[in-house]
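Per reviewer request, we include the raw input and output of the structure prediction for the construct analysed in the revised manuscript.
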Amino acid sequence: MQAIVQRAKEVAAEAAVAAGKLAKERFDGAFLVEEKDEHGDLVTEVDGLAEAVILEKIRAAFPDHGIRSEETGWSGVEGDFLWLVDPLDGTNNYAIGLPVYAVAITFFYRKEAVLGVIYDSVLDKLYIAERGQGATCNGQPLRIKEPKQGNRLTVGWIQGHAVQKDPRAMRLKHHLDAVAKRVLRVWAPTLVWCLMARGELDGVVLYNSEGDDLYAGLLLLKEAGGLVIDFDGEEFAGMQEEPYIIGCHPAKQEELLQVVKAGLMK
């Protein structure tokens, strides 16, 4: 198993960097943009080009693995091994010329993430998390910083496209806006988890946003020494179709949990 994970790490890192560099090269040029769904989510031709680069490398190395990718959906062979691929997390940003986007690749064994790779091509930062082996950024160990005491919270907010104006979500978001110093929403969730793993945020609150970009970020935070729990305070593990998650430094667990519970009760 360890040999498979190590080979997967090599393939995922190579694929993520290749796809990210392609996106960066095309960023200032002309590319097609289309609406993806009824919620106004966008897809560009760069999404497809970057995805093709990644899938080609994974399929060449692991032809008997399953793959779920953002644009093409399911492919490969269903079994113990599964790859989740988001070739351009932050497409809406990319489409309007905002350089906040990344590549996210996660490798699963029996529905548990064992490897997460994220590439921020704008800053040329390659994040790798391996279950039980820690996290790195550009090859250097990554550990979450100790939170500052006494400051008002800076929190990342992530919600699924289908959530839209859900009243419960809006109440929670409004409460966070009221009690926090700043609530960050950048429409590139993977990069929010990278910020959290570095300790640049006090917490991340995710409201029903399951997707191909999610699990690499969660694994990165866990392996950097952070905590991932659900809204009931229980450890979040595996895969869920409708996740409700808090990510934070362990020292911030009770504070963030109480803030979220208060917001949901309003």
